[in-house]
Each structure stands twice: as structure tokens, then as C-alpha cells.
Amino acid sequence: MARRPIIESRKLEPASSDLPSLRRAAAACMACHLWKRATQTVFGEGKPRARVMMIGEQPGDKEDLLGRPFVGPAGALLDKALAAAGMERDDIYVTNIVKHFKWKPRGKRRVHKKPSALEISACRPWLDAEIEVVRPEVIVLLGATAAQNLLSRSFLVTRHRGEWIPSRFTASVMATVHPSSILRAADEAARHAAMNAFIDDLKVVADRMRRKKAA
User: Fold this and answer.
1) DSSP symbols for 81-150
2) Could you give the C-alpha distances from 197 to 52, 76, 193, in angstroms and in order?
3) Cβ(42)–Cβ(130) under 8 Å?
4) Cβ 146 vs Cβ 56: under 8 Å
5) Measured distance CA(79)–CA(88) in Å, rounded
6) 17-214 has which CATH code?
7) Are the C-beta atoms of residues 165 and 151 closer than 8 Å to each other?
8) Residue 59, SS3?
9) C-alpha distances out from residue 166 to 134, 151, 152, 155, 173, Å
10) Half-sphere exposure of 170 (CA within 13 A, CB side)
């Protein structure tokens, strides 16, 4: 069987960028090898001009099967935390820095495997295009992989979570944990505490947006 050619994301990205055309172009991306084992490209979704953009690491098993970001267990937890913070998922654009699911087998399950720097770099033009098109007022980075790749390699979410971080972006930027980390907490008490801390971070975002709207 003939090998499929490697198509770089930069070559696929349309000249006149809007989200539907970006999504269609990204569906054919083969800039790294992850497309070979993924079901499909999982592009971002949400309001075309959302005031808040949330960026995670990569789609998970359910996201890969459904073709939508944050629809698995971590996504359900994110929705719950947003509601508790006074925000609505429908008002937010959610995406990942990597658009294909990287996984390893564990019995009959497909479990998450961290993407490499090369894979993140290959996928980065899609994220940059999303940010340019949506032009969010606030960017929330979910987890260390997103924060360290968009801010700095030495950035520690545990030290600076919930803070407004200087960045090259015109949007205000904050980092917090990825909701999947809450699901991995050791016990119910730890999960409860982690969830409350996550909600507190999102309340800071909600407060910033209310202030901007009132100004």
C-alpha cells in the first residue's frame, strides 16, 4: 500500500482564515505521525468570537471518537466547574494544543500518552490560527503542557495558578490545572479540595469578564 504524503499544517492553513475553513483544512493534517492512530482530527469549538478561550493538551479517547473537544470525563468536570464559577460552556471556545489523540494500549483501553515537543510544534499553527481568528479577551491554559508551551518551559502551574501572567498575547492569560488532574486525585477528599481550587481559579476569570463588560 502506498504511503500517504506528509502534509504540513502550515501548507494546509487557508489564506483567508475563519473557523469553518480552518476546521476543514485541519481534518486533512498529517504534519506528524499522530494521525495514523487517531480516529480523526479534533478541532476546537465554541463561539467564533468567544471572549474566553480555554486551551488543554490533547483530545482523549471519547473526544477522538466523537470528534469534539472536552466531551469526556474531564470535559464533564470542566462544565460543572464553569457552572459553579458563574460561566457557561456555550460562551467559551475550547481547544487543545494537539489535535490528535496520542495513546497507548492498556488492556482493552486506550490511555493518554503525553505528546512530544515535535508533535506539539507540528500542530502549533492550528492553535495560532484559532487564537488569531477568535481573538479572545482571556486565554485560560489548562495544565502544565499548555502553560509551558505557550508561556515558558520553566512555568509552574502549581506556583502561579490563578494569576494573570504577562505574555506575548493581546489577551489576558491565566493558567490553572487540567480538569483531568482532579479526576486522578487520590481520594474523595482530595478531589473535593482540588475541584474547589479549580472553581476558585475560574471565578477569577468570571470576575475579570464581568469587570470588562461593565467598563
Assistant:
1) HHHHTT--GGGEEEEES--S--EEEETTEEEE-PPPHHHHHHHHHHHHHHHHHH--SEEEEESHHHHHHH
2) 19, 17, 6
3) no
4) yes
5) 8
6) 3.40.470.10
7) yes
8) coil
9) 20, 9, 11, 12, 7
10) 9
| pLDDT at position 70 over 90 | yes
Q: Are 62 and 72 in contact (CB under 8 A)?
A: yes
Per-residue cell: 107: 488492556
Entry pTM: 0.92
Cell (9 digits) for 31: 504534519
Cα(140)–Cα(163) distance, integer angstroms: 10
Q: What length is written for the chain? A: 215
As a whole number of angstroms, the distance between CA 159 and CA 148 comes to 13
161 secondary structure, DSSP code: T
Query: At residue 111, what is the residue type?
Result: V
And the C-alpha cell for 204?
477569577
Helix (H, G, I), strand (E, B) or coil at 35: helix
pLDDT digits (tens, 9 = 90+) for 74-106: 999 999 999 999 999 999 999 999 999 999 999
Which parts of the chain are beta strand (E)?
52-56, 92-96, 103-106, 109-112, 138-142, 164-165, 172-176
> Hey, where are the domains in the chain?
17-214
